[in-house]
Each structure stands twice: as structure tokens, then as C-alpha cells.
Amino acid sequence: MHDDQEQPLELTSELVPLFVIANGRDLPPDHEYSRTTLVTAQEGISTATRTLSPEAREVMDLVSDGILSVAEVSGLTHLPLGIVRILVAQMAEDGLVLVRPPTPRAEPVDRELLKAVIAGLQTTLGA
């Protein structure tokens, strides 16, 4: 028996485009980027961006204007964080972007030490 209103076979899912965007790549183990890892474009690489995928080109356009975190790139491109990490890793390997860890948090200041330094300066300078 043949059903005339048969649903067409769906060969795609949400995972297939992401696999295609990443070119089937996985994140290399030496590129474990956190959400706060900072990304910026290398100087003078405009000709190399012609061969990038549309998604990688969008990432490149965003980071060419300044420094963004991996999470910001993910949010602005509406791509999952894992896909952005893979794209950034590939672009870093190709020398298109610079990637650096986030600025570490400042250490708490020892107030007593600062008071002693100020007192010493006031004594020495006569203020």
C-alpha cells in the first residue's frame, strides 16, 4: 500500500550544516580556546580571505575591526561556540588571526604595603 501524502525523506539535520561549516574538522588538542580567548586579525591579509568560507569570512570581518572574545564572535555570528573555536583554530593555523589568552585578573593589592610606601615617600620627599 502506497501513501500519497508520504513525508519526504529528510536528509539534513541541524548537525549537517555545522559539519560542513567546520569542513569535517575537529578542534585540534593544542587549540583549547576558552570563551574569553581573544581573537584579532593579522595585519595585511586581505588577499588570503578570498578563499575562506562565508562563515570564516564573517568571523574575519568581525575581528578585523578590533579584538573580540570567542564568545562574542559566537554571539555575533550566531554560530555555536564549538564551530567558532574550530574556525578560529583553522584561521590561526593559516596565519590569518592572532589568538591570545584573556588578560588575567588583577591580584588584590596589599593595602599595608601601599601605606608603607606612601609613608616612606612622604618622609623622603618631605611632603
Classification by helices and strands: mainly alpha
Q: Mean pLDDT across all residues, rounded?
A: 78
Query: Considering DSSP H and I runs of 4 or more, what fraction of the residues is helical?
Result: 40-55%
Helical segment count: 5
Q: How many strands, which pairing sense, and closed or not: the largest β-sheet?
A: 3 strands, antiparallel
Give the radius of gyration.
Answer: 24 Å
Distance between the termini: 101 Å
Strand percentage lies at 5-15%
Key features of this structure:
single chain, 127 residues, mainly alpha, 5 helices, 42% helix
What features would you describe in this structure?
By secondary structure, the protein is mainly alpha-helical. Helix content is about 40%, strand content about 10%. The chain is built from five helices and three strands, in the order αβαβααβα. The protein has a three-stranded antiparallel beta sheet with strand order 2-1-3. Helix 3 (about 70-75) crosses helix 4 (about 80-95). The longest helix is centred in the last third of the chain and has 15 residues, at about 110-125. It is elongated, with a radius of gyration of 24 Å.
